[in-house]
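Exam prep: given the inputs below (a chain plus 6-O-phosphono-alpha-D-glucopyranose), describe the expected output before reading on.
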Amino acid sequence: MRLTILGGGGFRVPLVYGALLGDRSEGRVTHVVLHDRDAARLSAVTRVLAEQAAGMPDAPEVTATTDLDAALRGADFVFSAIRVGGLEGRADDERVALAEGVLGQETVGAGGVAYGLRTVPVAVDIARRLARLAPDAWVINFTNPAGLVTEAMSRHLGDRVIGICDSPVGLGRRVARVLGADPDRAWIDYVGLNHLGWLRGLRVAGRDELPRLLADPALLGSFEEGRLFGPEWLRSLGAIPNEYLHYYYFNRETVRAYQEADRTRGAFLRDQQARFYDEMRRPDAPALATWDRTRAEREATYMAENREAAGAGEREADDLSGGYEKVALALMRAVARDERTTLILNVRNRGTLSVLDADAVIEVPCLVDANGAHPVAVDPLPGHATGLVCAVKAVEREILTAAGSGSRAAAVRAFALHPLVDSVNVAHRLVDGYTAAHPGLAYLR
Ligand code: G6P
Ligand code: MN
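Solution:
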């Protein structure tokens, strides 16, 4: 089984490789092809993987290439985890928006729109090549904004592209943990768009346990989302929102926290990751130890500004070790071995949320087997959540239009119609600011 990783010089690749090393079952991945446009990043990551595999007799073979078509040809699975514009671009996404007083964040608000505008054309190019070079491959999309990018790719690959995110799984696990339930046996009733979903129930043996959590302020204060949103707001909503909804429900506070931070998340990571890749240029640098130290710091500081704005304190130890690679491996195993399982994934809606059309990519529990991911039926969202989902999906559609046609007017609409952008004038200035900052947006006319 051959797995190609696009963005193969990326920092999280060793997480995926670590998960593959732990997979001893038949039909597992035997060959990993790393693709990246940057050979130095590839060599840094290859060194980390070699140290991970040391002493393991049948570790998956690793090859690296900067030739995209060569990487795609012959792939059984493709993980797409690219970052168009790099972390420099992420920091610019934040800076331009914050200068206009609106949220600049990797995937949410104006920052997410800018990131989408420069990522979609690249993702579409990859999807077209894949349809030609590896039409039977399954594509697992981690590339953010993951829902939007999955939808862009699905126009060329149909249901062969499946989007993943670790945040709904993390939320489900935390809620199960505080309720004393086994997360692998509980049914998580979760739906929305990527980074815009709500957990409305957690069923164990036919009984919804969420009301017990909502009724107990001490339990509500004992996990990440409880501390971020506050017990009162969660009780009032009657659901637990994805952590990314903190940017919506506490927009003023999160914008201010980002503006007042020494460095935004993107700027912090830009510098932190540059140090890592620089250190890896030294032939004697201990690759795995350096990577692991950098990873621990990255994980401990995840959403630090939000936690500070909410007075939520430090992250819990249990929350530190991602889950990103586990979702990817679970999905790949279910498809490759026809091991039926349920996972929360980004797939085409079909009729799941009746307010959206069939091709809209949503994030929803899916039954997965060798035929792919099949969304399960869910209850409709309440009006307030439907409103946000429809507004943000309309923004995503404007981004897809802009990326497909080069229409600057569509890009302005994408910013202006976003619930976290408060003026059409601001939207115009954002398009000006972002096109000046990002060469990847030169296609907008
Ligand atoms: C979570 C989200 C990802 C996002 C990442 C950002 O894992 O699900 O979509 O990219 O956080 O983490 P970072 O360390 O880059 O701020
Ligand atoms: Mn995500």
